[in-house]
Design a protein that fits this description.
It comes from Neorhizobium huautlense. This protein is an alpha+beta fold. It contains 17 helices and 21 strands. The protein has a 7-stranded mixed beta sheet with strand order 8-9-10-1-11-19-12, with helices on both faces. Strands 14-18-13-17-15-16 form a 6-stranded mixed beta sheet. A 4-stranded antiparallel beta sheet has the order 4-5-7-6, covered by helices on one side. The longest helix has 18 residues.
Length: 518
């Protein structure tokens, strides 16, 4: 769907009317799936926005060359029905589905794919980091109307795994609304995709409506006529909506919510492991936390066991990479609660006696983040440091990450892997090219950058693992984060939701097409 500004504003007005009626009344007699989430969708541009809520929108209103499905994650056809890879892993060719079409009825062609990848590379935002140093503007070409070829600048083992996040836009629509920013202003509030759902009513901070496209080109799928992404600020409210059958899916639940739902026959609980890290990032670029000794003091003062106790099904992180992923070293020496060492490093810092006030930002509605912020407050109190705790919405968090001046002293962040490779976490969260993005607001270390860059193009797995070992050791020594917990994903589904398949990458960016409602 290509929405005009007038239709978008009209949608917002309609959404206000929709918001005034109970959602179950709106969905009565229709196959409308209601998802409860605490996270807003601030930007509709698939080449700019990041985060799981935008990813959910992109997965359903756009298509990529391939999809990722199941556990372990498998790459499946999307816009491409087949592909070939050269022996040196640098040349890829994709054959497009000849039936694929955009929501305005025009065909998805190889030129559409080329245009989209060139736009991703040019904007240097959104998912572009996944291909940095691998794909440039000259790397992708249209062989013919239905064939796309990539010549990578270097071999890249997870190339197929990153492609599900490179969504293809309708060139004609973007060019017609190009403005002076390559269509960014237009795509911030409009879609130009080929996905099975189009955007309906939109009320930022309240709800987003998805409508199934009629005569869509995708084969199969469930019986959904549409879906509502409903913003709910508290996990307990999400749980109650699920219990009262006012929502079909609850996306941010905690251990106590899962316990409360355990014996409810109308609810199916999903608790699955995934590569999902939680860390408390520090402002290493400006303010007191630019002092590495102070960062180490705080890292030792933090009570990790209490953090784990509050997390529910989880385990403590051992360094910056998630346990079990390729290259992770479980024998690393990491920070654990030790007040003698905390005081030793505090004495080495510029703030020997404490006496300062810091700030932490955590996500509104995430009870665990609030609890962990309180643990941070207690840790800092033991060092004679005060802490200002600031709840924030997701758009506020993204905005605060844009510079050292706007970032608070600490920022609480979950990062869910988009692909099952250490490059995902390493590059997104620790490479300096990501500065200004929420995954890595300010951290910068040239030696760390070089290790990340070398590891992503190394095809010898033994050498690659050694590069990641050195990367982990350097990052731990820098102490840019309080390395927190790996929580299991906790989702709640109404028993009437059918055909959901868990995937441990972007698990809460729900793919609507396969789902049905009884």
């Amino acid at each position: 769907m290509q929405m005009t500004r007038r239709s978008f504003m009209g949608s917002a007005v309609s959404a206000a009317a929709l918001a005034s009626m109970p959602l179950e009344s709106f969905a009565a007699g229709r196959k409308i799936l209601i998802m409860a989430s605490s996270v807003d969708i601030p930007n509709f541009d698939p080449h700019v926005a990041t985060g799981y809520a935008p990813a959910m929108l992109f997965r359903n209103t756009y298509d990529a060359l391939v999809r990722v499905v199941g556990t372990p994650p498998e790459v499946k056809p999307g816009l491409a029905v087949s592909w070939t890879v050269s022996e040196d892993q640098k040349h890829y060719e994709f054959k497009l589905d000849p039936t694929a079409k955009f929501q305005d009825g025009s065909p998805v062609t190889a030129e559409s794919v080329v245009y989209s990848f060139k736009r991703i590379v040019k904007l240097k935002r959104g998912p572009s980091w996944m291909m940095a140093g691998i794909v440039d503007a000259d790397s992708v070409k249209a062989v013919d109307a239905q064939t796309v070829a990539f010549d990578l600048k270097a071999p890249f083992a997870p190339f197929l795994q990153v492609l599900p996040w490179m969504f293809i836009v309708n060139q004609a629509v973007v060019e017609a609304n190009i403005g002076g920013d390559d269509g960014q202003a237009y795509l911030m509030k409009n879609t130009a995709g080929s996905g099975p759902f189009k955007m309906g009513r939109v009320a930022p901070g309240n709800l987003y409506e998805f409508i199934r496209v009629k005569d869509d080109w995708h084969q199969g799928g469930g019986n959904l006529e549409g879906a509502i992404w409903k913003i709910v600020r508290e996990a307990s409210t999400e749980r109650m909506m699920l219990q009262r059958k006012e929502a079909n899916i609850a996306l941010e639940l905690y251990a106590e919510d899962m316990a409360a739902l355990k014996d409810n026959p109308a609810v199916v609980s999903v608790i699955e492991p995934e590569y999902r890290t939680f860390s408390i990032k520090m402002n290493t670029a400006k303010g007191p936390l630019a002092d590495k000794n102070l960062r180490k003091a705080i890292s030792y003062a933090f009570n990790y066991q209490s953090m784990l106790d509050a997390a529910g099904p989880a385990e403590l992180m051992v360094g910056p990479l998630p346990t079990g992923i390729f290259g992770h070293d479980p024998s690393l020496t990491v920070y654990r609660h030790d007040m003698e060492k905390a005081k030793e490093y505090l004495a080495k810092s510029e703030y020997k006696d404490g006496g300062i006030k810091l700030s932490v930002m955590h996500a509104t509605g995430y009870e665990n983040q609030r609890r962990w912020s309180l643990l941070l407050l207690e840790a800092l109190k033991s060092l004679n440091i005060e802490l200002d705790i600031r709840p924030a919405t997701w758009p506020d968090t993204v905005a605060a990450a844009q510079s050292p001046d706007t970032m608070p002293s600490f920022m609480c962040l979950f990062q869910t892997a988009n692909y099952a490779d250490p490059d995902n976490v390493a590059f997104a969260a620790y490479h300096s090219s990501r500065n200004g993005q929420w995954q890595n607001p300010v951290y910068k270390n040239e030696e760390v950058d070089k290790l990340i860059e070398a590891a992503r193009i190394e095809i010898d797995q033994t050498k690659r693992a050694e590069l990641y070992k050195k990367f982990q050791e350097l990052v731990i020594d820098d102490a840019p984060d309080i390395f927190g917990v790996l929580e299991k994903r906790k989702l709640g589904f109404g028993a009437n939701v059918k055909n959901f398949v868990f995937t441990p990458v972007a698990a809460n960016a729900i793919e609507l097409l396969p789902l049905s409602l009884d």
